[in-house]
């Protein structure tokens, strides 16, 4: 599963934001189920940043959010992200020069309650 948290950061706050994002990424990376992550910045508009993390499953991501270091370091930063959907399940993937592999959704067939 992929999590993307997008941010808009003024130029004068970029250095502080990057330091906090590095700490948040380190806290998330220490949690079970974390696969990889990166902090990226838009080339066309350097005010736009994105923290992208990949997880084994929805469950490992949600459990990671409960970790003490994540609560102290990452959650305050994530709360500053743009209010939009951020967690995505993988429905198709392809390795370099590989075939597209399609998988079924883990979402429940009915409405969430």
The count of β-strands is 6
Helix content: 25-40%
Secondary structure class reads: alpha+beta
Rg over C-alpha atoms, rounded to the nearest angstrom? 16 Å
**Biggest sheet overview:** 4 strands, antiparallel
**What is the succession of H and E elements?**
EHEEHHEEE
C-alpha geometry? globular
Report the uncertain regions.
none
Beta fraction: 25-35%
> In whole angstroms, how far apart are the ends?
22 Å
Please, could you describe this protein's structure?
By secondary structure, the protein is of the alpha+beta class. Helices cover 30% and strands 27% of the residues. It is globular, with a radius of gyration of 16 Å. The two termini are 22 Å apart. The model has no long low-confidence stretch (mean pLDDT 94).
Helix-strand layout with pairing:
Elements: E1 2-8, H1 14-29, E2 34-41, E3 48-55, H2 58-64, H3 68-78, E4 87-88, E5 92-94, E6 100-102
Antiparallel strand pairs: 1-3, 1-4, 2-3, 5-6
Keywords:
alpha+beta, two-stranded antiparallel sheet, about 30% helix, 6 strands
Outline of this structure?
The protein is α+β, with helices and mostly antiparallel strands and 113 residues long. It has three helices and six strands, in the order βαββααβββ. The strands form two sheets. A four-stranded antiparallel sheet has the order 2-3-1-4. A two-stranded antiparallel ribbon has the order 5-6.
């Amino acid at each position: 599963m992929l999590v993307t948290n997008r941010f808009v950061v003024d130029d004068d706050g970029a250095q502080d934001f990057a330091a906090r994002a590095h700490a948040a990424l380190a806290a998330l990376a220490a949690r079970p189920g974390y696969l990889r992550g990166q902090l990226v910045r838009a080339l066309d508009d350097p005010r736009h940043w994105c923290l992208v993390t990949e997880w084994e499953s929805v469950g490992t991501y949600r459990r990671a959010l409960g970790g003490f270091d994540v609560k102290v370091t990452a959650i305050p930063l994530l709360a500053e992200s743009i209010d939009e959907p951020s967690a995505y399940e993988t429905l198709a993937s392809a390795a370099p020069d590989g075939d597209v592999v399609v998988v079924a959704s883990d979402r429940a067939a009915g409405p969430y309650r």
